[in-house]
Fold this sequence. Notes:
By secondary structure, the protein is mostly beta strands. It has a domain at about 1-40. It is about 10% helix and about 35% strand. It contains one helix and four strands; from the N terminus they run ββαββ. The protein has one helix at about 20-25, and strands at about 1-5, 10-15, 30-35, 40. Strands 2-1-3-4 form a four-stranded antiparallel β-sheet. Strand 1 and strand 2 (about 10-15) form a beta hairpin. The two termini are about 30 Å apart. The mean pLDDT is about 85.
Amino acid sequence: xxxxxxxxxxxxxxxxxxxxxxxxxxxxxxxxxxxxxxxxxxxxxxxxxxxxxxxxxxxxxxxx
Length: 64
């Protein structure tokens, strides 16, 4: 799936969703459009993805 992005040089474009994490880490992408919520996400001030297992203190219930 293609994502609309805003790059650090203020240009806009489209990238494959599989490239998003790498391009954020490299500082190329500074924001992307999240169509499900119809909003732009600033990667510096917004969480882009939840980290697995953070904050959960209970027993692991998923099968392995």
